[in-house]
Amino acid sequence: MKGGEKGTFTKQVFSRPGSLVDVRTHFCPGCHHGIAHRILAEAIDHFNLREKTIGVACVGCSVFLYDYIDVDIAEAPHGRAPAVATGVKRAQPDRFVFTYQGDGDLAAIGTSEIIHAANRGENITVLFINNTTYGMTGGQMAPTTMLGQKTATTPYGREFRNDGYPIRMAELLATLEGTAYCARVATSTPGQIRKAKEAVRKAFEMQIREMGFSLVEFLSTCPTNWGMKPLDAQKRVLGEMSEYFPLGVYKERRQADFA
Amino acid sequence: MRRVLPRRLHPRVAMRSPTAGIPRELMKGNEAICVGAIAAGCRFYYGYPITPQNDIPEYMSAHLPPIGGTFLQAESEIATINFLLGTSASGKRVMTSSSGPGISLMQEGISYMAGSELPAVIVNISRSGPGLGGIAPSQGDYFQAVKCGGHGGYRIPVLAPHSVQEMYSLTMLAFDLADKYRNPALILGDAIIGQMKEPFVPTPYVRGVPPEKPWALTGCAGRPRQNVKSLYLKDNEIEVHNWKLHRKYRRMQEEEVRCEPYRMEGAGIVVVAFGTAARVSKTAIQWARGEGLPVGMLRPITLFPFPSKEVDEAAGTADVVLVIEMNTGQMLEDVRISTRHHDKIRFLGKPCAIPTPEEIHQEIRRLAGEIGVKAGNAR
User: Fold this and answer.
1) What is the complex's ipTM, to 2 decimals?
2) Rounded distance, CA B360 to CA B366, Å?
3) Fold of the A33-252 domain
4) Which residue among B89, B109, B226 places its CB closest to the CB of A88?
């Protein structure tokens, strides 16, 4: 309120989303989880879903979702969030159900669960955070780790003959009939953040209109485990990561394919 | 005394029982589990095919949707148990069934559900192992069920039916125990008890626990947000949580022990057996009693909590305790832990096969000789 008397403002244009708990997060400086959390909370508020939502947290840095998002949240075993969300949604089809998963969780140990949830057209929304590493366990190789990227378990850089290639989940899931909406976004510039918000709202809409499975992949940073300053981490997202993982909407169902 | 059942009404033959007053049903054990689950209000079933329990998902897929329930076939047992986790967290009664290899895949989820204090009923119609083993009946999953195969140290109630009647009634009990303790509960059957068809009385379900689940995740309308979790990182939170769980398991041991004493009057030889092994033993015990041999059986119905006090008392008064299992000796260890009379304990095991009444009868006669009782000399 510095610079003016309280009450002199004519219009409030910015505030903390109601669904975002007012606490200090445990995330490292320069990490994009905070941005994704805010986008998620804004979408929940936008559709007035706070009291109708059940979230499913995965294992990794985002496990503390229940401390930051002011909705009911279940904690899933590593990789199993889409299966837990399936169990919640089948029991409570009138509730809004989302998962929030990292790349190790979704694209390695949980590959089976995410593919089959998408293929069933499970009416849930997935926020997928791709930062090309296992953040919480100390920066080991993830399925999305870039070729040549040095991690705690690829000290000489990821090499395709030994470790295979970084997996493009948004493209892969877009091939499945059950997927209603699938997009990849980034949050490294204000413009990208605006697009990310639009994508998340689209994904929410798919579930609200019972169109089927929706997913938004976020290209995110992990300055701590990348060994980079936050601004350099932003540059990496805008550079080599966006080249290998192109941003865009990979699938958008226009009309429900069932009555 | 066998009654001839009209085959044309197969597979669900309703007939009047002069004693019970409730029409009896003729069904497989696996199907009786389904009838019991539906009677207990279970409207959610998830599963993955595996022999010898496929009658259960097949029955549920046919009978749940018409009554507004949900059947969903999962892509794996790993997904299955996590479907259960989500539906249980929503406050609904939910069940799955599988056999050894599938139950192995569920162990992670069972540990998470125990840690998150989520109720559910899990049925193991066990088969032979280890590995792919075979589809012959076995009691080789005793350790996995009773000692719990998942990580971290937890306990779950384990019920061991020995008849189709009990497949029905213990399933209803399992739902009540699961809700009462906010804990997964397991039914340990085997291929024989699952595939065997016999009449049972579908007694009405009487709810043993209140239906309210204020902890369920239903959206935080009109209340603060809440969560279902098993991660406790702060200070000594996880130690406190473990003691809390431990107190719950102790309470199960104090309140939930169930066992059936069978022909225990004056029994110098006490058979301890569960499930199919107990069922076969009953025939052998009848034969031996007909010869005047003093033999009875203590049949644990709950494998956890184990009837330790009852086993100890029986071992104290008996000359010899004969543990019979369809494995190489697993419950045997719990019998040993239960009593100091180790010198009295004998074992008859048959891994992955059913002991015949003749084999058990022969062993009873041999033991009778050991303790100096001859057949024909009625006590």
Assistant:
1) 0.95
2) 10
3) Rossmann fold (3.40.50)
4) B89
